[in-house]
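User: Show me an example of a complex going from sequences to structure tokens.

Assistant: Sure. Here are the input components:
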Amino acid sequence: MKQNILTGVLLAVIALLVALPWFAPYFYIFVFTEILILGLFAVSFNLIFGFTGMLSFGHAAYFGMGAYTTAMLLLHLDWPLLYTLVAAMALSGLLALVIGFFCVRLSEVYFAMLTLAFGMMVFTIAHSWRDVTNGSDGIAGFRISEFGLGLDLVMGNPAVYYHVTLAIVVIAALVLYVISRSSFGLILKAIRQNPERVAFCGLNVRSYRLASFVIAGIFAGLAGALMAPFLRVASPELMHWSLSAEPVLMSILGGTGYFMGPFVGAALFVLLETWITSYTGAWMLFLGIVLALMVMFFRKGVLGTFLDWWMNKND
Amino acid sequence: MTDPILKISNLTKRFGGNTAVSAINLEVMPRETIAIIGPNGAGKTTFYNMVSGRMTPSNGSVELEGKDITGLPPHKISRMGVSRSFQLNNIFPEMTVQENVEVALTALHGHSRRLFNFASRNRAVQEEARQLLDKLHILDLASRRAEVISYGDKRLLEIAVVLATRPHLVLLDEPTAGMTPDETRRTTALIRQLAETGDYTFLITEHDMDVVFGLADRILVMHRGENLFFGTPEEVKNHPEVRRAYLGEDEEEEASA
Amino acid sequence: MSGLGPALLNSLEMGLLLFVIAVGLNIVFGVLNIINFAHGALYMLGAYFGYTLISILGLPFWIALLTAPLGVAIIAVLIDRLMLRFIYDRDIADSLLLTFAIMLIISESVRSIYGSNIQAVYPPAILDGTVSLLGSPYPIYSLFVIAMGLIILAGLWYLFNRTRVGKIMRAAALDRDMAEALCINTRMVVTGVFAFGAWLAGVGGVIAAPMRTIDPGMGEKIIIESFIIVVIGGLGSFPGALIGALILGAIYGFGGRYFPEFNLLLPFLGMALVLLFKPTGIMGKGANA
């Protein structure tokens, strides 16, 4: 019963999002495009944090990899957008495979340090390999001529790109949701709660950790690939550790225990950012304070706290 | 004469200068129940850790059904038919009781590589999990979260998870520790029933001598990492050195243990 | 090979500075089982406190060297008492998250107070200038850094091997259960060790101020370097921190000379190599998941 109510709420939210350009002010089309992209980024992060139990501080590396892939393919080869997205997912997944190989071998503490260190390595490369990445200016000046599959894409109207983003994010989120509820997803949850018992059930915990890390990388890459045309630039900031902090905060803000938590967190995050930055430039400082308070006193997040209360009510 | 299911030769574990397990030799026949007794610190858990792959031996070898498994990682040893429980409960606390067993079954049937199904609709696994819970008399707890059930029921749940991997060799580390006398009686009966009706070989460490003598076909007495004595329960009861070292006839040993 | 001497001295200078910082991270991890992501931010705080005292208030360098690290240690006591105490008995992920948040708070506070520009601190007159060493001119300040590094190294060695407090800390790092059995994980020890780690970071910050640039990004740079050091040397190991720091110093000193185009990448490659062949670090014990 309650499950049906939740599904209904979710469908209503998606319907509202589809209709958004017809009733919301122009400005909010940009805000919600960003929420959708960062929401996907955060959900991909939470697959490894909330489900497999690995805290990554370098998730922006795959996000940035996706952004650079799309930007460069659009700039140099003029590919249709859809093809660049697929290529971005493939390359981000590959990067996650290489880095993940080193990171999943050791304990949680090592994992956190290594993901941050390798993330900054990727940032350093993007920042200093000027011939390819154009240094701190990043890749800009690309244009999108078509979506692929014979569909045109008019970038002049932000509502069009918003709808493209919405469609892709909904599909990607569905895929991630199914994975999280699959037999594989059950094993990931088991690994977070007790990796030793999973090993004594006959599974190689390391390969399941790596598999989830790569899947998370692939979808972070997709989010990044959607971000580059939205920002019209792929720059090293998209790989910086402060961007890796964003999905961490979004997941904590919304709640790591529920699949939709990071999406709720992303919405709160972007709306807060929009609001706060109109008053002060110290947004990142605010971000740090909120993260600290959430971790200390409100660990289940907004959605998590609400759903835990609501699901247990009158049961 | 059948071949032993488990053949342990000269098994040794050293930590720095300390020898926790020293040159243990042991042959276990299929469907036997072996109890391992000895004071705390005798090296029983370290012995288990080496057999189950949690620790690499410093010396010696472990053979399972004629195959050398010395130093293999736990997941490989598990797949070859060895499963174990731990002294402290080792379950998935945030899952339901039934899901705990489903994890092991998902691994067993190779479903763990399925990314695009719904685990909650895996009827075959669910049915099998419920049968197993029924066998351990905890089916009525199936939908409870594992962390909220009683201590004794958690111990039973862990045995259910252990059995779900369909092991030939089962290592139980103090299965009745912390249980009420009633729970201990029920668990002992349950293990005896499993040993008599199923295709299991049990290794059981235990402090409760009623449980030990009620279950064991043979008993290994360990003392300071060494094999003090290995024989039938009758022999153990009558062995003077064992009585002195472990069965409560040496005040000094008890105090230092 | 006339460049060999200066490269060696540069390596030693960088290595010893990095040691002072990384060993603080390692001590805190050893005793508290926390990887302090804000450790680099505390080092930066030391540098900015030094900058404030020396370049803005015009106080002598030596006063700053004595007081700025104490200021950092006081901040650390506040962090410990007001924030970390809530999560000591929680899952390790929470301590990672919280110190990460503290890193954000400190670095962004510094950015909004001092701005993003690069600041400079000049060494005191007595340490200014160069001397001829091994046939090349060499800054006196660099020799001072090497000397300070060696003094701190000797001091830490004395602390861990010859004093009761140090032996307790070492015991706690080796075996936390035993430490708890000896009742040494009391509130005072936890706070004290955390503050001591921060003090070391602060000392590193003041020493680094005249030789490295001061900007709000310096904390993140050093925390990455510290992570590389503990991964190379072995997490929680005191000699490991020294070996790791000297290796990283050598990578900078020699790599910068012979492979300047890969200079930024070499530390990461070194770390990856160690991870491939000795995942727990050169001096590390078992840390497998």
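The lines above are the inputs; the final block is the predicted structure for all three components together. Chain A has a mean pLDDT of 90.
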